[in-house]
């Protein structure tokens, strides 16, 4: 074995409410991980205490993370255990200099967001060039976990099966010609990525260095969220009311209550309508082709959630917004693709997808989701592993069964969203989608892509999956083609996954090939994943 002792740390959220809410699950998970390590003859020392005043035992800031790492020997193997969303920058500094093997571990749970936290940390470590191994489990007693843990203890690394991903070689000639021609025109025309403050929630992996982005023909316009808030103050009450009434006429339901602390209120939604108008006007002012709002820091203390806004922006059918001086409609008949949580990797992906799908004549609405959780489902013609793709409201109505009429806006959870605001919640319609992820590794932009089928599950199964995750958010039931659960977890370098529909399976395959050719032409290293 590499050592008789390991140190365990728990990286956490910046928001105390989230850390306190997940503390009990974290403690239970740590007990199970410690038991598994002790069964291998290894003792475990926790690298930092549970703070009774804070009510949790997570590293909750970069400052505190530096304090913790000052007392951690660099030559002792390190386990990072996650049952909560975590801000990767809280601990990246310590992991940069750590000299012993690092293992990231998460609980296989939709309720406790350790999985998405771990995937973000893994993507951040990959971008930073830090060696690590990773594991996940429901109860930390299964053979997959035990064997992986033993491998890490004995060899300092875990070799996961990632045979589903292979470098992109020759592509069908028609699709390749289409993709290459599109990419050359795209790069020559150039595009602006509007970034309302970078680095949301510690997502180091979600920031594309300018020197990697510029060769694609895309350039950042760095904007401040204070500018967005200031622009909101210039939007009239009548303009906000017009957006709100447009949504009600299209059939969007609002789950209103009277308590501002816990319920969705009309006042919150009207503020979101002002944010929507302000965002479109600022995008037009700066010539942005796509925008990303950070929200989770800064704006969360000033305004309701941005997620309803993001869902509207990602849809071609959306409330009209007019220039405040000329009265000309802005971006008429088009979506203004929005990358949730300022994930610039998703922003580049979304922009290429939207433009290329429009060229192909496919429905171009696209969104990212969290790769949240999943389990096998059998019944009603489905007998497969069905993933829960879930995001905080940014999915477009075009993705939902019955569009706006099949959607409802519910209050964001107070744990994360103190000032409330509504989501755009719906169930994604059955169909064929192309999934993808842009990420940074070894100083290069990478691109993974594959096919998936969105399946319709019985309402009771959907409600159960919502109950086990976040019931206020839009959901997609996705079956990945030719990729197991563990292969996906081992390879994917983000908590986010980009999705776009195609008219049918043949169109999805053609679109995937054309987009792969476009990404290659733009200079990305492309891998095809699963059954294509």
User: What is the C-alpha radius of gyration, as a whole number of Å?
Assistant: 23 Å
What CATH calls the topology of the largest domain is: L-fucose Isomerase, Chain A, domain 3
Mean pLDDT score: 97
Low-confidence stretches: none
Q: What is the share of helical residues?
A: 25-40%
Structural domain count: 2
Instruction: Report the CATH superfamily of the largest domain.
Output: L-fucose/L-arabinose isomerase, C-terminal
Structural class: alpha/beta
Overall body shape: globular
Ends: how far apart? 41 Å
Largest sheet: 6 strands, antiparallel, barrel
Describe the overall structure.
This protein has helices at residues 16-39, 62-69, 92-97, 114-128, 143-155, 173-189, 210-213, 225-232, 237-249, 266-286, 307-313, 344-360, 459-467, 485-491, 505-521, and strands at 5-9, 43-46, 78-82, 102-107, 133-137, 165-167, 191-196, 218-223, 253-254, 290-293, 366-379, 382-390, 408-409, 431-441, 444-454, 475-480, 496-502, 525-529. The chain has 532 residues and is of the alpha/beta class. It has two domains: 5-155, Rossmann fold (3-Layer(aba) Sandwich), CATH 3.40.50.10940; 173-529, L-fucose Isomerase, Chain A, domain 3 (Alpha-Beta Barrel), CATH 3.20.14.10. A hairpin with a 2-residue loop joins strand 14 and strand 15. The longest helix is centred in the first third of the chain and has 24 residues, at 16-39. The protein is globular and about 70 Å long.
């Amino acid at each position: 074995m590499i050592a008789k002792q390991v140190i365990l740390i728990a990286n956490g959220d910046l928001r105390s409410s989230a850390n306190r809410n997940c503390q009990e699950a974290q403690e239970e998970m740590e007990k199970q991980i410690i038991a598994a390590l002790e069964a291998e003859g290894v003792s475990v020392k926790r690298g930092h205490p549970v703070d009774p005043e804070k009510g949790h035992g997570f590293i909750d800031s970069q400052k505190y993370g530096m304090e913790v790492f000052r007392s951690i020997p660099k030559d002792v193997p390190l386990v990072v255990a996650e049952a909560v969303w975590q801000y990767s920058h809280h601990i990246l500094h310590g992991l940069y200099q750590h000299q012993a093997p690092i293992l990231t571990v998460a609980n296989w749970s939709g309720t406790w967001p350790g999985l998405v936290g771990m995937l973000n940390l893994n993507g951040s470590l990959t971008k930073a060039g830090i060696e690590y191994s990773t594991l996940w489990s429901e109860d930390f007693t299964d053979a997959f976990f035990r064997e992986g843990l033993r491998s890490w203890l004995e060899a300092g690394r875990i070799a996961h099966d990632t045979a589903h991903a292979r470098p992109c070689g020759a592509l069908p000639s028609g699709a390749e010609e289409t993709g290459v021609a599109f990419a050359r025109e795209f790069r020559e025309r150039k595009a602006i990525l509007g970034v309302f403050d970078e680095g949301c929630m510690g997502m180091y992996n979600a920031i594309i260095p300018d020197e990697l982005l510029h060769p694609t023909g895309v350039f950042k316009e760095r904007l401040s969220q204070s500018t967005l808030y200031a622009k909101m103050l210039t939007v009239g009450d009548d303009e906000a009311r017009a957006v709100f009434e447009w949504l009600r006429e299209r059939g969007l339901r609002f789950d209103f209550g009277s308590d501002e602390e816990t319920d969705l209120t009309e006042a919150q939604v009207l503020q979101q309508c002002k944010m929507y108008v302000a965002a479109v006007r600022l995008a037009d002012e700066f010539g942005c082709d796509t925008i990303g709002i950070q929200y989770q820091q800064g704006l969360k203390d000033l305004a309701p959630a941005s997620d309803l806004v993001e869902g509207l922006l990602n849809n071609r059918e959306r409330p009209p917004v007019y220039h405040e001086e000329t009265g000309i409609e802005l971006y008429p008949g088009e979506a203004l693709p929005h990358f949730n949580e300022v994930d610039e990797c998703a922003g580049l992906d979304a922009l290429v997808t939207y433009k290329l799908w429009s060229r192909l004549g496919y429905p171009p609405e696209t969104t990212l989701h969290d790769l949240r959780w999943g389990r096998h489902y059998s019944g009603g013609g489905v007998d497969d592993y069905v993933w829960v793709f879930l995001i905080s409201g940014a999915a477009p109505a075009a993705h939902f069964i019955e569009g706006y009429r099949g959607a409802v806006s519910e209050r964001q959870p107070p744990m994360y969203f103190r000032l409330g605001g509504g989501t755009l919640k719906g169930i994604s319609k059955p169909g064929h989608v192309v999934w993808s992820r842009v990420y940074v590794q070894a100083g290069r932009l990478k691109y993974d892509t594959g096919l998936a089928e969105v399946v319709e599950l019985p309402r009771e199964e959907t409600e159960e999956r919502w109950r086990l995750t976040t019931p206020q958010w839009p959901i997609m039931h996705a079956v990945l083609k030719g990729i197991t659960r563990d292969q996906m977890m081992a390879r994917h370098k983000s908590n986010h996954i980009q999705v776009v529909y195609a008219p049918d399976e043949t169109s999805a395959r053609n679109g995937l090939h054309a987009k792969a050719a476009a990404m290659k032409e733009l200079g990305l290293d492309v891998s095809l994943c699963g059954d294509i």
